[in-house]
Design a protein that fits this description.
This protein has about 500 residues and is of the alpha/beta class. The chain has two domains: about 150 residues, Leucine Aminopeptidase, subunit E, domain 1 (3-Layer(aba) Sandwich), CATH 3.40.220.10; about 325 residues, 3-Layer(aba) Sandwich (Aminopeptidase). The protein is built from 14 helices and 17 strands. The strands form three sheets. Strands 7-8-10-9-13-17-14-15 form an eight-stranded mixed beta sheet, sandwiched between helices. A six-stranded mixed beta sheet has the order 1-6-5-2-4-3, sandwiched between helices. α12 links the parallel β14 and β15. α12 crosses α14. It starts with 6 loop residues before the first strand and ends with a helix.
Length: about 500
């Protein structure tokens, strides 16, 4: 949740505004007088004096704060750095710095002079206002004392920023908040049934249709790999399908697939007890898909989309699958189970194959907290991607640049197929020991997408716990890839 419900566009000026907190921006090397010209003589003098005392030059890590008068109680001037070195994400970070500073001062209303922040394009305006919005998030659902650390409730924007961009940013921010919320709920609340209910809420939007397939139908449908994982839990698994028809009739849909393991104990191959509580986050791939579809429901892009979530718990029990079992996936491939903790790929295998068969998508992406190995390779600031189509991978990289959500491509060469080849089944669900664990998982998934242009995104490092950049929460889920994917989808519209 967030206190800030939206961005308020105003025709007020520096001469007429009344606010608790006024934010101005200054490029390094820019004259301070250019951004303070609209202030009263007394306020200009105060800001100038503070800048001199602090030797403020407009560097990106600098900020000066001045206490003003009855109309403008505080003025904060934020350094932006050198114009030639600024990236899109630097503007997003600038928005976050404003929000963090204002919340630190327990301010309820802030005013931002957008004209002073060098927002020379719609993309930069979007990035900057995203920083303002998504930084306002905090998760307090289970606090008895719900005193908010994030106090800002109103964000007023001077300078007549583009109204359509503000509407889009508000929708995207709410989508990110949904992804964070469903991930942060504990596993005794966020069950597969809970995720299905969240999907049903989106079904009321124009062009939407939500279908929930219960675990009781998995065997009849041929979802043997998914069912094998689901067998050990008392919570009924769900295959959640969300269809959105905003494009031309007959156009093939873009497919989004999410791993929805609402709790992963490891099954019979039980995980160590330390940090097992974090395994409630093993459904963050499904949270990404839900977040994207919330944005789609509100913004109504002109394309067709099929979104699918495979949701279950992975639990030990008398009916749980065992190491050594062999299951048959939807596309007929047999899989030797060597470790029941490599379960996410089993769920995704069936969902990918089912969507490929039933919906014939033009392109497809899946999102999963799939391997600890991706943390070793890339840390918690970059998601790993791999796929079978260079054009799609290039599109995703462009969306990554626009959104500031970093990705890095790992190879998916056929040489790696040997790592998952089984001696007694078609493939096995574990690679070659500790070697290339993320890639072998991607190679496993590749066996279930056919010729569909496809990309797998491993978000195990980025889905929760990352505290940088500044617009991410201090604790809990990040809502990773919601903004990236929506940017990608927008660029599919012809």
């Amino acid at each position: 949740m967030a206190n800030v419900k939206g961005l308020k566009r105003t025709t007020k000026t520096l001469e007429t505004v009344k606010t608790e907190f006024l934010a101005l921006g200054l490029l390094q090397g820019q004259s301070l007088a250019t951004v303070t010209a609209g202030l009263t003589r007394e306020l200009r003098a105060s800001v100038t004096a503070a800048a001199k005392i602090e030797t403020f030059k407009g560097k990106s890590d600098e900020c000066i704060l001045v206490y003003g008068n009855a109309d403008i109680k505080r003025i904060a001037v934020f350094g932006l750095g050198k114009k030639s070195e600024l990236t899109t994400d630097d503007f997003r970070k600038a928005g976050a710095r404003i929000m963090n500073r204002a919340n630190g001062l327990k301010v309820k209303k802030i005013t931002v002079d957008t004209a002073s922040f060098a927002l020379t394009s719609k993309l930069l305006l979007q990035a900057f206002t995203e920083g303002l919005m998504i930084t306002g998030y905090e998760f307090l659902n289970y606090k008895s004392d719900k005193e908010n650390e994030k106090t800002v409730q109103t964000v007023e924007l001077l300078g007549k920023p583009d109204a359509a961009i503000l509407k889009k940013v508000t929708a995207l921010s709410k989508a990110v908040f949904l992804a964070r919320d469903v991930s942060n709920h504990p596993a005794n609340v966020a069950t597969p049934t809970f995720l299905a209910e969240e999907a049903k809420k989106l079904g009321a939007a124009p062009g939407f249709k939500t279908t929930i397939i219960d675990e009781s139908k998995f065997e009849a449908l041929g979802l043997g790999a998914f069912y094998g994982v689901a067998r050990g839990s008392a919570q009924p698994a769900k295959l959640i399908l969300m269809e959105y028809k905003g494009g031309k009739k007959g156009d093939k849909p873009f497919a989004l697939i999410g791993k929805g393991l609402t709790f992963d104990s490891g099954g019979i191959s039980l995980k160590p007890g330390a940090n097992m509580d974090e395994m409630k986050f093993d459904m963050c791939g499904s949270a990404t898909v839900l977040g994207v579809m919330k944005a789609v429901a509100e913004l109504q892009p002109k394309l067709n989309i099929i979104a699918a979530i495979g949701s279950t718990e992975n639990m030990p029990g008398g009916n749980a699958q065992r190491p050594g079992d062999i299951v048959k996936a939807y596309n007929g491939k047999t899989i030797e189970i060597l470790n029941t903790d490599a379960e996410g790929r089993l769920v995704l295998a069936d969902v990918l194959a089912y969507v490929t068969d039933k919906y014939k998508p033009a392109k497809m992406m899946d999102f999963a907290t799939l391997t600890g190995a991706v943390l070793i390779a890339l840390g918690n600031r970059v998601s790993g991607i791999m796929g079978n189509d260079e054009a799609l991978l290039a599109e995703i990289k462009r969306a990554s640049e626009n959104s500031g959500e970093r990705v890095w491509e790992l190879p998916l060469w056929e040489d790696y197929f040997g790592d998952i080849k089984s001696k007694i089944a078609d493939i096995k669900n574990l690679g070659d020991g500790r070697m290339a664990g993320t890639i072998s998982a991607g190679m496993f998934l590749k066996q279930f997408v056919g010729d569909t242009p496809w990309c797998h995104m491993d978000i195990a490092g980025t889905a929760w716990g990352a505290k940088k950049p500044e617009y991410l929460p201090k604790v809990g889920a990040t809502g990773v890839a919601v903004r990236l994917v929506y940017d990608l989808l927008e660029n599919q519209v012809k």
